[in-house]
């Protein structure tokens, strides 16, 4: 992926959102500050209830902040009037988890809807709709109704509709969570192409770290209404700081231990140690285990691992088992070679 420009298309400054409730208010967002880089893809990841959907809905004014400031393309959303908000929304497209298509309209009719609402003339609507349907690969299905489409095709219609007003910002509300893995990859590839070809800023929310890995330039991790960690996606994967981030990363391919090993791990003990080694950049292809054996005489057995690409750079994890008494020497050696390690426990 290409690096995103440095300027921000969306900024959140000390943003809070509270909901009134009997006996007091509940905070959905608590003093959130975040910059979403123009022309890039930023992911916000968090568990259910973390506040990520509320954060997204502040961007186009579907919700209003209780405190703080939200700016989109240099305009203050928190202070926008009805007319200003309608103008802003033409620059902000949105795709939804459950598609939100009109059942009585064809693909063509669903994509045309935002243009009809905006009063765009018929010939211009026809031109844009035809171009967008071709862009998302549905040219042969333009006259079909939603009931005749697969989930992935419906989401492509949703993406085309979101692009109809030629927005500068695209919001994605869990756009792939209702799709199977193969369809998810196709939709993510389409979003990557749109970002690259149209220069759109994309802000997406997800609960899947694999989605962040596959598409995002930047990521913000949310928990209980706050951002607990943020940075470039590669840096977050290579060196996560917060326990919440590490818990999300533990489910990504290459970091999951076989069940028969995971069930035997204890946090302490004298049994064989389980060590996770993180490789980043040039170190991703280093023959580290053979060096441990040859230079230190430490035997380590591989339990799992993978090397993949994040933002155009190699990244990998390797989980190994070794004698507990060898652990300090092994870690010192690996750290000296700029490799990050994490002791997962000991086999009981």
Terminal Cα span: 43 Å
* Percent range for β-strand residues: 25-35%
Examine the coordinates and then state which fold CATH places here, giving the name of the CATH topology of the largest domain: Rossmann fold
CATH architecture of the largest domain: 3-Layer(aba) Sandwich
Bin the helical content: 25-40%
Number of strands: 15
Poorly predicted runs are 1-5
Major β-sheet annotation: 6 strands, mixed
Give the overall pLDDT as a whole number: 88
Quick structural overview:
The chain has 348 residues and is of the alpha/beta class. 33% of the residues lie in helices and 31% in strands. The protein is elongated and about 75 Å long.
Provide the fold topology.
Blueprint: E1 8-21, E2 24-37, E3 41-46, H1 52-59, E4 67-72, E5 75-76, H2 82-89, E6 92-95, H3 107-118, H4 122-135, H5 151-162, E7 169-173, H6 181-198, E8 201-206, H7 209-215, E9 218-223, E10 226-232, H8 233-238, H9 243-249, H10 259-262, E11 265-266, E12 273-280, H11 288-296, E13 301-310, E14 313-322, H12 327-336, E15 340-347
Helix pairs in contact: 3-4, 3-5, 5-6
Function: Part of the ABC transporter FtsEX involved in cellular division. Important for assembly or stability of the septal ring.
Pfam families: ABC_tran, NIL
InterPro entries: AAA+_ATPase, ABC_transporter-like_ATP-bd, ABC_transporter-like_CS, ACT-like_dom_sf, MetN_ABC, MetN_ABC_transporter-like, NIL_domain, P-loop_NTPase
Tags for this model:
single chain, 348 residues, alpha/beta, Rossmann fold, Alpha-Beta Plaits, 2 domains, six-stranded mixed beta sheet, five-stranded antiparallel beta sheet, 12 helices, 15 strands, 33% helix, elongated, disordered N terminus, membrane, cell membrane, amino-acid transport
């Amino acid at each position: 992926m290409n690096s995103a420009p440095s300027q921000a298309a969306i900024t959140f400054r000390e943003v809070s959102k509270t909901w009134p409730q009997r006996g007091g208010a509940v905070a959905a967002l608590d003093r959130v500050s975040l910059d979403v880089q123009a022309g890039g893809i930023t992911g916000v990841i968090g568990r259910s209830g973390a506040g990520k959907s509320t954060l997204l809905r502040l961007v186009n004014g579907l919700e209003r902040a209780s405190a703080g400031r939200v700016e989109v393309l240099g305009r203050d959303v928190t202070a926008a009037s009805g007319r200003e908000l309608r103008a802003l929304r033409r620059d902000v497209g949105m795709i939804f988890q459950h598609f939100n298509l009109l059942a009585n309209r064809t693909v063509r009719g669903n994509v045309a809807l935002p243009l009809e609402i905006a009063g765009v003339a018929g010939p211009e609507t026809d031109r844009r709709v035809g171009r967008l349907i071709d862009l998302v690969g549905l040219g042969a299905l333009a006259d079909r109704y939603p009931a005749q489409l697969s989930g992935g095709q419906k989401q492509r219609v949703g993406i085309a509709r979101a692009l109809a007003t030629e927005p500068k910002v695209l919001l994605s509300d869990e756009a792939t969570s209702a799709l199977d893995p193969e369809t998810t990859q196709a939709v993510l590839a389409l979003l990557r192409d749109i970002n690259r070809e149209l220069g759109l800023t994309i802000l997406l929310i997800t609960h899947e770290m694999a989605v962040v890995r596959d598409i995002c330039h930047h990521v913000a991790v949310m928990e209980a209404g706050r951002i607990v960690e943020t940075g470039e996606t590669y840096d977050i994967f290579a060196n996560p700081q917060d326990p919440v981030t590490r818990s999300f990363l533990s489910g990504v391919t290459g970091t999951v231990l076989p069940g028969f090993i995971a069930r035997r791990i204890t946090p302490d003990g004298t049994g064989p140690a389980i060590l996770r080694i993180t490789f980043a950049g040039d170190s991703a292809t280093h023959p580290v285990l053979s060096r441990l054996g040859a230079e230190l005489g430490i035997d380590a057995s591989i339990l799992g691992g993978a090397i993949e690409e994040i933002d155009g750079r190699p990244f990998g994890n390797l989980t190994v088992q070794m004698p507990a008494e060898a652990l300090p020497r092994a870690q010192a050696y690996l750290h000296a070679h700029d490799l990050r390690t994490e002791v997962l426990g000991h086999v009981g």
